[in-house]
Amino acid sequence: MDNLITEKNDYDAISVFIYSKIDKTLLDKLQNLTYIQTLSAEYEHIDIVECYKREIFVSNAKGYAGSTVWEFELGLLLKVLRRIMQICLDNIENFLNKKERKIKKEKKWKSFLALKV
Hints:
three-stranded parallel sheet, mainly alpha, 3 helices, 117 residues
């Protein structure tokens, strides 16, 4: 973001994405700034306290990717749950296989021949 600031520094408003870090040093360069809009759901990349001190209004884009983010999060959750289920099933299968091998080792089968007379 620093490399986009011109010498004039007369921006009243800026619209930034999550990768644009807005901190005190950048705000010092933007003396006329009164509004920051972020194209994200969160404000973690913006120094909110400093904006409050300077009376700069900060908002996110209303409804920006709301359903898309929700669908993505739900998809990730389902993927994690599937993986957890697969791990549980694998562990149960391994346990049963070990138990079966142990039982086979313990049994001493005697072979015999049965004849019908």
